[in-house]
Amino acid sequence: MADPTRIWTAALIVIGDEILSGRTQDKNISQIAIWLNVQGIRLREVRVVADDSDAIVESVNILRARNDYLFTTGGIGPTHDDITVDAIAAALGVPVEVHPQARAMLAGYYETRGGLTEARLRMARVPAGASLIENRMSGAPGIRHGNIFIMAGVPHITAGMLDSLTGTLEGGLPLLSATIGCWVAESEIADLLGAAEQAHEGCQIGSYPFFREGRTGANFVVRSTDASALNQCLTALSAALEQGGWPVIPNGI
What we know:
This protein is α/β, with parallel strands linked by helices. 37% of the residues lie in helices and 27% in strands. It has nine helices and twelve strands. It is elongated.
């Protein structure tokens, strides 16, 4: 019988010089984190690396070993600087091959779009032994090899690949959360937050301060895999803040 307390983890490698240069703002971290949580998987760490084979190989081998799953985004297109497949194959110690099903998918997609050129055929290359992740948006599939998921960098294409993976990965309980806000400085209620978390096993309280409208405030996010424990912690925290003279604003400020 599966352990209900087991926490499944994932890491993400965002690949691309354009992300590190600031020319492109990454949108995949948030959507992958949200999707993973619904699957009962925690996104534990994220690395952003350049289009550099050695950097990708190093990150892949470290992160795939210490997490249940590893996702990568970017670098699987048709151009010379799309080196993710080659780098991950090197990390795994396997050759790169053209996947016949991927080739057929691309041939069909580009039949009325100029045909399957050598550049487009690059998007059918996979580390040997890989399977495919369906891509309903642009024809070029994502790639799965063991616990590694190699996905597009374009956010809406990534979203489609995630949708095709929904319900296929083993995970635990989703992490639930609830937020309250308060016009108070963190330093005034640090001990109160710590005591509330300690008194409710299985709950975590995150504090996120801000300065707005000339005032200092904070939002407090209570997280747990147990809905009952979460509600008890949230109720106790709200009561403690109210008793301290800091009115609570449900759902945050």
